[in-house]
Amino acid sequence: MVAAVLIAVLFIVGPFSRRGAARKGAEIDSLAVLPLENYSGDEEQEYFVDAMTDLLISELHKIGSLHVISRTSSMHYKGTQRQIPEIARELGVEALVEGSVLRDGDQVRFTVRLIRGSTDELLWTDNYDRNVKDLLILQSNVAQAIAHEIRATITPKEETLLGNVRSIDPEVLDLEFQGRYLNRRLTVESLELAVEYFERAIEIDSEYAPVYEGLAEAFMFLGQLKQDPSLFAKSEETILKALEIDDTLPGAHTFLANSKHIAWDFEGAEAEFRTLRRCL
User: Model pTM?
Assistant: First the structure.
């Protein structure tokens, strides 16, 4: 009840934004997205907040003029009390993006801040209130807003990639987010449950390519843990389905290239890496 009232109050207050400070200084071409904070007060929502972090990193990666630190590096700072200038120095970036997620049912409030690494100066901040079904659109909008504030160049091709998003059934997104969270636990039990989640999501929306990407990853890890070649075959079949739906998915091309490399198909791996470069 309290969370519902808080969401209602936030909706009435509306978005708050500070803009323009970034334009007073030099252009920024490197940044990292720190793990977003979970403001729901519910630890079971961590998978959702982590997925929001991943989505924003993925959208920013579509902008070629920006050097964006990988999720693997930035997630080391989850729950840290380190100072912004120290983190920026360690990661070698000019700016950091931080924020928080407050979820109440299918409603989400996303607060995001852009901070200059060397001085801890707040360059820009904004609040976004959205339904879960529009999260992909939201993260694309946030990535473009950040790029605008730091005067990053976005090519016409990148604009198309950033705009290639749609509303998704909230249940599908939730199943995908939980599946990807389970994939990272790397146990047979977690991966088998992840497969169930991804397959349920596909039953609801069979044209949402990222779910196939997550399912392929689950099959691959399961194949490694169980030493089962049939699961590797299912993994490649599934990732090809993802690319059949959306051949611009960088993660899917990377996954397929690495799979071919592991299978000693170096020519096929190189072809996929060339395709990946054309996607970026």
Answer: 0.83
